[in-house]
Protein 1
Amino acid sequence: MNIHIAEQLTKAQMKELKKLYRNAFPASEKKPFWLIRKKKRQGFSEILGLVNEENRLVGEIITIIWRDLLLVDYFAIAEDVRGQGCGARALELMKERYRGKRLLLEIETPDLPCDNSRERVRRKRFYQSCGMESMEYHVGLFGVEMEIMTFQCQVSFEEYHEIFVGVYGKRFAGNITRI
């Protein structure tokens, strides 16, 4: 499937993006959307759509940019187009767009007992198949254990934590621990 990253979204596309955001992530992992928009206005974040050749929003990328680090904070592909190469293509587009940045993301730790263990394992395998590697540490992110994955680079816990201190402040970052 042919897709591209869109910075400017129509009202209808932004509505679809918010709907995808609401449905794709557990409540315990979502920031309020007003906070994401605020960080975008402050220049720390980008809210990007993945749009196909029919101009339909088929995915979203919400990033946090801090120094030479790019945290892919939220990344989702519309359910009806999963398995068609959109996710892998989107990661390639991200690598091109953010050339020179160290790209990282968080995934729910796949080897913990949970209701969606198959989905977690499948997600990790997908990222590994796209060239991502797990860091040697996990984090507690507001009480949720997450694994950090990067594209062929190292990001220490201290660097990861500094993203949140720099963008959200020490109080917010106090909810993020090394496991």
Note: The first strand starts at residue 3 and ends at 6.
Protein 2
Amino acid sequence: MDQQKIDRINELYRKSKAEGLSPEEKKEQAVLRREYIDAFRQNVRAQLNNIDIVEKDGSITNLGEKYGNQKGN
């Protein structure tokens, strides 16, 4: 997500607190927030894919392989 969209999210938030949003602005805010959350989740998943844990028995478990493909994530 680019900085312009993040700035717009913040702008809409401030406006909603100060004077309220029109229905179109509320829709725009919801779309931008969903896009931000999806980008955040994708970033976390990418980080998990790069984390390996050494188990007590010496085996290596990749967190992305272990948890990345479960439903509900």
Note: The CA atoms of residues 9 and 30 lie 9 Å apart.
